[in-house]
Hints:
Elements: E1 2-6, H1 11-22, E2 26-30, H2 34-43, E3 48-51, H3 58-68, E4 75-78, H4 93-121, E5 124-129, H5 142-164, E6 169-174, H6 183-187, H7 198-210, E7 215-216, H8 220-229, H9 234-246
Amino acid sequence: MLALITGASSGLGREMAIYLSELGYDLILVARRKERLQELQKSLPTHITIFDYDLQKAENIYELHKKVQDQDIDLLINNAGFGLFGMFSETSLDRELEMIDLNIKAYHIMTKLFLQDMMKKDRGRILNVASAAGFLAGPGLNTYYATKNYVAKLSIALYEELRRQKSHVHISVLCPGPVATEFNKVAKGTFQIEEENARKIARRAIVKTLKNKLIIVPDEFTKIGLFLTRFLPWKLSARIVYLIQKRK
C-alpha cells in the first residue's frame, strides 16, 4: 500500500503520515521543508520517499507527478495550504494569490492528474483536506474560506461524477473546525476557541477515508455548528462568522 501526502512536514499532514505508516503504508511525503521531512522519514517504520517541492509553483506539481506516476499510489492526500487573517481591503494581494495557488490550483492539478491515473486502474482514494470553512463565507479570513469552499464543492461534485461512472475510485473531503497546527502562526492570528488535537483529527480522517466516507466532519461541535448554519440566512451567517473571526 502506498500513499502520497502533501503538506506532510507538520500538522495534519505529519500526523496522517505517522498513522498511515503504522497501518503499513509506504509513503511519498511532499513539503517545502526538507529537514522536517528527513526527520519524519527517519522516524517511520515503512519505506518513505520525500520531495521538497513548493506546490505553489505548477511546474513542481507536474514534475512530481511525472516522477511518481508509475508507482501504484493507493491514496492521495491533498493537505498543503495556509490562511491569512485580515480585512480584504487591507491584506496583501500577493500573499492571497500565493494562497490561491496552493489552496486551489495545487489541489486542482493534483486531483486531476492522480484521479486520471486511478481511473485507468479503476481503484484508489483521494482525500482533500478542506475545512468547516468550506460551507461558510468568512469575513476576516475571506480568501481562505473561499479557497476551502472550492475544495469542498469540487470534491462533492467529483464524488457524484465517479458514482455515475460506476468507478471504484473514491473521493473524500475533510472538514474540521479549528485544529492545533501551525495555521495560526502562518495566518497571523489566534483562535479564541479550543482547538482539536491534530493527531486525533488525522486518525479519524484516515479511518473515514478508508471507509469511503464523502464528507468527514471529525468533531461533534463542528457537526452541530454546520447543521445549524443550514437554517440561517447568508447575511446573518456572515455576521456571525465575522464576530468569531474578529476575536482571532
